[in-house]
Amino acid sequence: MAEFSARAARHADIGLIHRELMELIDSMPYYSDRFKAHEKARLDKTFLRTLIEIDPWHVMVLLSDSEPGGFLISGPDCGTIFQFWSCVFPRHRKTSLGMHGMRAFIEHWDNSRFHKASTYVRPDNRIALALLRRYGYEQVALLEQHIFGEDYCVMERKFTKATEGYDSGMQLPLASRLRLRAQALLDR
């Protein structure tokens, strides 16, 4: 039986995470081609590097026997941690790595600086909805024709906020932004 764990992403993980994320987005039957194009353009390597600069745990790498087998991507949003995407790589999909990832995400972020976790899910993505509900998420709203004319469920899980203050979102110091721009030029 495989041993599961999780760790914060490193810059060396960006290529693998980005490639798997692009494949995941392309493969999802729940989203329109317009939404897929939008997400693929938005979630570029610079976006992932920015998340790692803010906090490396925003790109949580799921490990199976110490090898990457999936990830969860999140970001700060005014006291809420927003879950952008989660993925278990195809060769690990018939394992419990996804459940381990949800537990690791909650254990890491609860009792810290966020008062809740939030995410959007298409109403017809029953597997994602069931997994989220299993881990204490509740549907708090149905956003009709919200993103490119499609409906989305807003799923949230309350956390215990243990640290004072709130994140400023995706803001970085000038030196970090310049370094990320230079890296983006090298990616081309």
Percentage of β-strand residues: 25-35%
- Proportion of residues in helical segments: 25-40%
> Helices and strands, in N-to-C order?
EHHHEEEHEHEEH
Instruction: Tell me the total number of β-strands.
Output: 7
Give the tally of structural domains.
1
Q: Return the CATH architecture.
A: 3-Layer(aba) Sandwich
Instruction: Give the number of helices.
Output: 6
Quote the CATH topology. Answer: Aminopeptidase
Radius of gyration: 16 Å
The CATH class is identified as: Alpha Beta
* Spatial strand order of the main sheet: 1-2-3-4-5-7-6
Task: Name the shape in a single word.
Answer: globular
Name of the CATH homologous superfamily = Gcn5-related N-acetyltransferase (GNAT)
Q: How many strands, what sense, and barrel or not for the largest sheet?
A: 7 strands, mixed
**Class of secondary structure makeup:** alpha+beta
> First CA to last CA: what distance?
41 Å
The average pLDDT score comes to 92
Runs with pLDDT <50, length 5+? none
Describe this structure in words.
With 188 residues, the chain is an alpha+beta fold. It has one domain: Gcn5-related N-acetyltransferase (GNAT) (Aminopeptidase), CATH 3.40.630. Helix content is 37%, strand content 30%. It has helices at residues 14-27, 33-42, 45-54, 97-109, 126-134, 174-187; strands at residues 4-8, 59-64, 67-77, 80-88, 116-121, 138-147, 150-158. The chain has a 7-stranded mixed β-sheet, sandwiched between helices. A hairpin with a 2-residue loop joins strand 3 and strand 4 (80-88). Helix 3 (45-54) runs antiparallel to helix 6. The protein is globular.
